[in-house]
Protein 1
Amino acid sequence: MSTQIDKEACREAYNQVRDDNTEINWTAFKYEGSMIVPAGQGTDYEEFKSQCTDEARLFGYVRILTGDAMSKRAKFTLITWIGEKVSGLQRAKISTDKTLVKDIVQSFAKEFMISDVKELDEEYIRRELVKAGGANYDAQAE
């Protein structure tokens, strides 16, 4: 059976992360059978990381603040999480299913495919987003 996505619910979750008037800075999309659905959202990145277990495969859309003392900017990333215990067939399928998610999640600075929890480190993600963002005036202070 081909995978489908709950477009309305996923779009609503995506828009809440994008909205500057909310505190929500992440949302996750998971599989329920052959349907991709919202799997939670929140204000604490650690909460998002806790969903990334060895058995899970999910997509995360995360807002991370970057910038320097003069200018703070929100950067967005799409994270594809594939746990260590996910089967080979499910691993292969997530690559094609990602196109369904990208139909909704269209605005992000960098995309990550991660299966090692160490790579979910928030500072690592932030550094990669800064690199992807072009000019980094904060680097002059280093």
Note: The chain has a mean pLDDT of 91.
Protein 2
Amino acid sequence: MAYPQGAVDPLWPWFSAVAGQDQQIEASELQTALTQSGINGNYQPFSLETCRIMIAMLDRDRSGSMGFPEFKELWAALNSWKQTFMRFDADHSGTVEPHELHQAVASFGYNLSPGALTVLVKRYEKGGRIAFDDFVACVVRLRALTSVFQGRDTQRNGFANFQYDDFIKCVMCL
């Protein structure tokens, strides 16, 4: 998006307030920027681990940090995920129940087995409910793992071959 001369991208102040001289932000800085921006609404601040995996999702050069273009990409994704979260948070409690997580995951186009959905719920629920931070972590991991898998599913038949070392690199960076 082009801005009139002298105008600044509205996200720039959130990014630049925490970015170092290298104009990159790391997980703790992303946590600060997102908390100060209010993107998480009335929800708790994002955990450091969620911030790490959000960076990993967009970290194409494996630097462990993100620049402003990636920050903008993440911001757009977070807004989309927030809208989805709010749509499926039927009781407006700031959390989703397991069946609501299933519906949200399906709305993103993922066709997961009941067993896979149960694994997601067990991984991300606390007290039978999934908070926004954990919802984002779940969606980021689904997106990233799906992308890695699809890149290796050359026949597009739902099967992928990984060498052990390659598999570890793929899943541990998320």
Note: The helical segments are 12-16, 27-37, 48-58, 68-88, 98-107, 114-124, 132-152, 164-172.
